[in-house]
Amino acid sequence: MERYTGPKQIRYGRRKRYTINKRRFTIFLIILFFIIIFTSYIIMPNIYFPQYKVTDMEDGHLEIYFSTALDQNVPWFYLAAVDKAENIQGEHITKERAGSIGIYLQGIQSPEQLKSMLVSYRDDKSFISKVEREVKKFKKLNSIYENKVFPIASEYEYAYEDSFGAKRTYGGERSHEGIDIMCDFDIPIISVCDGVVEAKGWLELGGWRLYIKGNDGIHYYYAHMSKYASGIREGSRIKKGQLIGYVGDTGYGSIGTSGKFDPHLHFGMYEKGKAVNPYPFLKAWEIYKVKLNGD
Description:
Blueprint: H1 22-43, H2 59-72, H3 76-85, H4 95-105, H5 114-118, H6 125-136, H7 139-145, E1 167-168, E2 174-175, E3 179-182, E4 188-190, E5 195-203, E6 207-214, E7 219-228, E8 237-238, E9 243-247, E10 264-271, E11 274-276, H8 279-285
Antiparallel strand pairs: 1-2, 3-10, 4-9, 5-6, 5-8, 6-7, 7-9, 7-10, 10-11
Helix pairs in contact: 2-3, 2-4, 2-8, 3-4, 3-6
């Protein structure tokens, strides 16, 4: 008979140790880094190409680019990108210069065509690469410019000039934060873009007014209305070309005040709370008007 001698001791071998191949691990980290960079570039390109704002551009320069673009059938931001790449500033930005650049870019459909089209203008790889980078930085500003309509319907007469920044005295010394589009009483007012009504009601300076936040991030301000279109309320979704109200002469007093000035639409644009000049945009949008059948 086998004698019991207690529990057997089990011997375990040495625990296997794992080591990292430093070379392979370094290659893995490098590949991972570039994957992250590439992915973030696709998802958030603004990180690599900080976007120009309206306030980064001179009003007169925008007007030059917008008008030349229409004359030459060239998207305006290509003209601006060339000037930025060549560090052209101030009075050197002219309609003549923009027009001469536009000749080389007529018919351009995409940034991929820039290289072949700009070679005739300036055969310099470094310059062309810089222009391509500058084009990307105008994407946000171009979203404000494009796909808009004029705020007065095509059937009606109106007049306006660049009065942005002009002195105003009612309520104290201040500067004019928009453009006055002079026209007859009760002419329909059109939303220039898609957006959401953020504020509706009476404002002493603006009378019956609307703030619409556009899908482009700009706040559009319509003031001195005689009345609102039906169905307009805070939170309403607004479509480009939609009737939103009628021209009036309200404001400059307590609720219901009217007759303090000639009827007109005060049209304003605000970028991150700062008033920007709507004049160059209005001039560009004049060729895009809505016809209101039956109104």
